[in-house]
Amino acid sequence: MKKYVLALDQGTTSSRAILFDRKGNICYKAQHEFTQIYPHTGWVEHNPMEILFSQLQSVMEVLAKSKATVEDIASIGITNQRETTIVWDKSTGKPVYNAIVWQCRRTADVCEQIKADEELTQYIKDHTGLVVDAYFSATKIKWILDNVEGARDLAEKGQLLFGTVETWLIWNLTGGAVHITDYSNASRTMLFDVDKLCWDEYLCEKLGIPMSMLPTCEPSSKIYGKVAKSVMGIEELAGVPISGAIGDQPAALFGQGCFDKGQAKNTYGTGCFLLMNTGEKRVESKNNLVTGVAWGLDGKVTYAIEGSAFNAGSVIKWLRDDLQLIPSARRCDELAESVPNANGVYFVPAFTGLGAPYWDMYARGTIVGLTRGANAAHICRSVLEAIAYQMTDLLEAMKQDSDIELAELRVDGGASVSDIMMQIQADMIRTNVNRPKMVETTAIGAAYLAGLAVGFWKDTEEIQKIREVDKVFEPQMDMEKREKRYRGWLRAVERSRDWVEH
What we know:
Radius of gyration: 23 Å
Largest sheet: 7 strands, mixed
CATH superfamily of the largest domain: ATPase, nucleotide binding domain
Shape: globular
Strand content: 15-25%
């Protein structure tokens, strides 16, 4: 009888391995960080070999702690930082360049050239569900082919392979036998037709990307292959099926049990990522949100609409480290709780511009409404409110786009531990905020998908029963007060916009 599913959670700064049992409990976990490489301003890279080794290291550590054998592990599921782009030689297995990370802005000028062609920009939106941005993988692949000596020649000869991080890991774990991606990761490349569920030949041609480089696209829950005997350090896992792959944010949506249309989750991390399940139908956004495949499961595809705010937990960190206004994040909560409101103060955390639904790269951070009566507690409260207001903006945009009324908001991420912020969030969105006991929602999402493919869990109903609630926050503020506060926020946002001269 198999005891565990192994989840590989490959993030932007570290790789983790977690063993989950049938009840969804974390039995063992290990984590290894890897190097962040910044060759120029706005450029971000990782060493793909280091990503692989840090992931294998984490697996080895978990195996050593648990003494688990191949007989104990039912399958492996992988979740990953999305958009990060790796190109390697299929004969040698060596990358031709470092991984270009999702945060990297080096291809902004290529994106501007694409945007100058209105027809192409519209085509990308219509077929991929994305806005043209350096964030996504397509222009990163193009950059490698255009700038790495000999790369284009090798690619045209069919010698090079492209993958986002889960593709790279699966290829290595199967000893080069399997070159696949799942629909959720393919949706973030800007090359994938999200309706037809295949690579878009026209876009590949326009960007000069040979289709021979691209992996096969598969559902998120399926046996893709098995761990090869030749994988150094984890030889004892040879033969274990790799049966789940999904990008980190849709993984959290799945891990939160948001299986029904209209369910949504928000991850409160450095930034915030809000995803709503829109069912088997793709929603086209009129508010500059992006749409894509959340997962493929049981012969069906589930779509999601997504919005993000650039600065959330990073603002609390700024209060602590740069302003030294607070010694810890917990102190921010304590100060915010000590006052009934922010005393008319609004903080707009547009440190790096504003994301959806505004998309104003020239906006900057703003504090308005200050009077002599404002103190540190009011500033702290205004910061927590700002995070909640940003999510309210995104949810309002989602409602307009989808005509779906939100049933509840499920939350995770480091900053979701703040009771006061979750209460403010519930008041602002007029909907219950539901926080689970399980904080590792991304990893467990990958584990569930892998386990479903091999019958470790029967179906999503069984998974739904596993989820335990830590606390539900219900709206308490009266409507008039809520409307007044939210109007104040929208006025403050307007003050922050288009600040940088250009």
